[in-house]
């Protein structure tokens, strides 16, 4: 036998063994007595040198040519296929020895070329051109292979991988976790470290390799990624490599996932497990070092996990139904029109402000100038201290935290998708969100340029819970209010014109809407910067400083009046009990609709929940969307069901035509607030155009558009304009989905008083075990839903629960003296209830009932 064949046998014996798990040869890898450190197997050159030495020393040799031949027949060395993997597993089960499978896995999963050549589609496997870069050694061993195919480019979503075959094969491998887990870990460690090194110098060549993306799809399919044994090294390295690819490559990966992966759920679960365990590690680290002030976003590996989750979020969107191009273009034009109106209004304001500045300067120079002007003058241009960033939305467009290069590359706007392949909530890691200190995240964010921030959760709104988004919006609003106060303080130091640092309105209870209109029109509409100040209300003839309670009451009272049927601006859908615009409202109500829109925006800006109920489509429209047929399901359920039956009607099965069955034309009637029927032609001469099998989809589209858009255009446009006057510069449209805006405005209608009790605090001598407190909660738990809402309005100013439930109200119950005949009182701005220590449960119930039934006006509180 030639020396070369003998060396080959020794090499195989060291690398793969003889396959006999009872082997006693210390020079055979199959032996439990194997004398070598198995790390030697990572360097094939070192193994080859050792094989040469063993051949010269004639040590025992237990591998013959038949074993090598059998191995090579069972395994095509350079790739895995579904068939050879199944045969290999069957062989290992037959001999009850898994060395051959482990060695094969090691050959494939530790070598980029071998892995990329596995599970290929038939039409690609034999039709590739290979560009070989040879090393400088005499043997000219290939150092790198780059496979090119004109059908595969970075700009398309084609791949050479047979997804179905790969999934079946990896599923088979995952079922033998006990036998191959360690080998997979070792092999991926070698593969990924080598790949990371190669990407430093050959990134473009690798990313344009026809098989390159196969590697990421295959590894993503491995269930081991969520195993704690893999999470902190292998998985993190894999995520790091993936998220450091070029934007073009990441975009292609997202498109591949959206096209070929029918179910992203397993991938999302892997990443969420990764994020949860990294959050746990951060918690343990913070607990050990009590003086540690590091944010969760600073935890090593967190950036990689959330960034990969964003790739999956984008794939989830791309794999679902986007709004039609016609709808998107209509929405763009509508919003552009509204933007232009805002620009014109602000231009008028700036012109007025310039004139005022000139006038004020002249007055300042005049000897007769007064130095104590009333603070009702609209704010003029003021000097502010320069900061790196004032708020999230004041950054340059290219620094926008909510629009990244990958999103732009993919042409994605999340609000153009009603839903994804999976619910959006699946991307929110609740455990991690509980640990995020959103205030510190925000401060860390605004104190440095965007380009210098390594990672912040603020860049990933899809990951933030609704609670954290609301907290972020509130913090941003307070930061703006602070900046307004600071700039006015500086202005007042150097100017004789005294400016008011707050947006304060003075109203009479009997003329609430009239007074609010005058104040908001003058200070708000004509001077929009006033709206960025903290909002205060004064009721004429009533004492009390507005710490939040009076503002809550003001919003509650004015919404009750302006939404009442007597006012004729809105009507209530009897089926849904939701408010909707009255299509026949008076022509001269633009000011009132603008006022309501402003109130809605001010409530959001000042963190006040309103007692109103609109259908979900209204909040979509506030985000710049238009209503479509799908929205009718929640806004006009009966009409939706009728139109649905029209769309699904089968003339052949029913034995009659749509004309005979429905008798519809393109003229329709809409009921107004008074019950009158208003006739509209969906098309010219609509009364003579029948609805048929051919034009029924057009009829449904036009009818839906009429109900939700065209018939209320005159009412909604000023309403939307008023809303934008307050919210235009905020992060609202970037942070929130329409369904979250609804919760932000109206809160939750689910009232769990057990949550309220569990989070309550006690003061003035009360504890949770005090007899009066026990009686108090006993009474509240027996209240009807209406009584519970009255109690909440009495103590907090709103009868809704905030996002996250009643536990977030933090009700404070203070002992207000011993037993007495006086009623309980409340400070709504502090969610504080002042409760005398009543002598009996009957007396407590009587006094509490009187208080909550007669709570209107500051005098009782």
From TrEMBL:
Record GO terms (molecular function): ubiquitin protein ligase activity
Catalytic activity from the UniProt record: S-ubiquitinyl-[E2 ubiquitin-conjugating enzyme]-L-cysteine + [acceptor protein]-L-lysine = [E2 ubiquitin-conjugating enzyme]-L-cysteine + N(6)-ubiquitinyl-[acceptor protein]-L-lysine
SUPFAM superfamilies, per the entry: Hect, E3 ligase catalytic domain (SSF56204)
Pfam families recorded: AZUL, HECT
HECT domain sequence ranges: 527-861
Protein name: HECT-type E3 ubiquitin transferase
Active site (UniProt): 829
Sequence ranges of Low complexity compositional bias: 368-386
The protein's Enzyme Commission number: 2.3.2.26
Phylogenetic classification of the source organism: Eukaryota, Metazoa, Spiralia, Gnathifera, Rotifera
Basic and acidic residues bias spans: 339-367
Assigned keywords, A-Z: Transferase, Ubl conjugation pathway
Enzyme class, UniProt record, top EC level: transferase
UniProt region (Disordered), positions on chain: 339-394
